[in-house]
Write a structure and sequence with these properties.
Elements (H helix, E strand, L loop, with lengths): L2 E10 L7 E6 L2 E7 L2 E6 L10 E6 L23 E9 L6 H45 L12 H7 L1
Parallel strand pairs: 2-5
Antiparallel strand pairs: 1-5, 1-6, 3-4
Length: 161
């Protein structure tokens, strides 16, 4: 299983233990650039069942999470953001449906390519083996400049082989 490592931000309601983890894409919805800094807004839509959960928001490449805040349009309490650096994420876990289809197509094509390359390598090995057999028989028959001469005594042929 391949894993990616990304910076995640863990949001937990402050009161109780966590019932379930939700891994969420933190796609940028808008950004405002200032001199030396940027304000980046990430919009996440998520239906979460009632209870206390941990929301893991993937923010690839984020190294400085100072000033990070989260708001919600519902009455849900959002706990203090906690960075989780180098958190393992299964490859494809954050794919959109379109990306998942594309990933499946690429993986299928790669698999087919490897199968074809394996078949080609087997055929090339067969051809090389046949060429070696032909070269060997030519050498025994004296048909090549480097070939051995045929002995006059047939019993000596066994030793030569």
């Amino acid at each position: 299983m391949l894993r990616l490592f990304a910076t995640l931000v863990s949001l937990v309601a402050a009161k109780t233990s966590v019932a379930e983890d939700f891994l969420i894409r933190g796609d940028i919805s808008s950004a405002t650039l200032y001199a030396g800094v940027a304000e980046v807004e990430r919009l996440v839509e998520l239906d979460v069942p009632q209870g206390s959960h941990r929301l893991l928001v993937a923010i690839p490449g984020a190294s400085n999470l100072t000033g990070l805040t989260f708001t919600t349009e519902s009455e849900a309490e959002v706990g203090m953001p906690q960075p989780l650096v180098a958190f393992p994420i299964t490859l494809g876990a954050l794919d959109t449906p379109e990306q998942a289809v594309a990933r499946g197509a690429v993986e299928g094509a790669v698999s087919q390519l490897r199968t074809t390359e394996d078949a080609l390598a087997r055929h090339e090995a067969t051809v090389e083996a046949k060429e070696l057999q032909i070269d060997y028989l030519r050498a025994i028959a004296g048909g090549s400049p480097d070939g051995a001469s045929m002995p006059d005594d047939p019993d000596a042929l066994t030793a030569q082989l």
